[in-house]
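Sequence in, structure out. Go.
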Amino acid sequence: MNKNLRQLFPITKEWVYLNHASCSPPPATAIEAMNKQLHDVQMNGSLNYHNWVAAKENCREMTANLLNVRSEQIAFLRNTSDGLSCIANGLKWNAGENIVTFQNEFPSNVYPWRRIRDAYKVELRFCPERHGRIDLDEFCRLIDDKTKVVAISAVQYASGFRADLPKIAKAARAVDALFVVDVIQAMGANPLNAEVDLFDAAAGAFHKWMLSPEGIGFLYLSDRARARIEPTLVGWISALHHEDFNDFEQEFKPGALAWETGTFASSLFYAVEDCLKLFDALGVEKINAYLLELTDFLCENLDREKYEIVSSRLTSEKSPIVCLQSKMGFSAGEIAATLRRQKIIVIPRGDRIRISPHIYNTKEDIEELIVALP
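Output:
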């Protein structure tokens, strides 16, 4: 990556930050863009409201481009959990149906399905983890003619395992189940393509690999998913002609747009727009190649007598997330605390240390980490 990128991230003056799978520091330009919108409101009130809407619509178009979908198939929400809940709650459920997912999913991709299980007597099936991996043959064997939804993260938060999405999608399509993907740990760090990866619906947010402030998530619905999922959370902006305040019988907007209920924090969209422009300029494929280069460097130079690499590093399964376990008896919390005292930020995930560098990190950062590991 261009070393000038590092200047956009003042966090590098104080920390070696390797925790982008949790929450990322935004580039300076994103904060400037956000402050610009807030200053506009401060000085002009609502006079430039059309500019705020234009920024949001630009974000929608660029997000759609990242997923290779149409812009009206993208709705903005608060976070990933909102998106997954909208999918779960909008389907018509029958007792005896089942949902297939992974045992170690992030809770955002479990609780919406657990509520459906409890409310409708639907079975929730979990595939176990096997040595930091998901055995996708085992996973797909859980899918049968009673499966209504198959839900999985594109990249697993606690292992970095990257799923073969087309393989799962084909198993789901064979029984006419919807394939729902949590993309928050992939978006921006791994290329995604709804047409190639064959997912029917997806949810994510921008505060991890997309380098934006917290507060903006998104929902993607394919035409196939939209035909089955009804909006259960609606508001005035959901209406087709939302500025007509007298017609309460009008239709809702097409695609996913009906899920947008009201006004947003417009300043956040200015920040998201700035970050999306950065990703558009750099290209996700190049970003992914660079991040895999950094994480390969980590794995190749790690002291294997002291640490076990939990994450699969098979070419078809690896991601820019690397999880380690100590062989020396240190807990993940102890390791994270030791590194923090040396100005290096990683995060414990269960009994693992998770490392997730980004575009402004360097091999020198990784070398610092390797030396500092207890």
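Check: Residues 34 and 268 are 6 Å apart (CA to CA). The longest helix spans residues 49-67.
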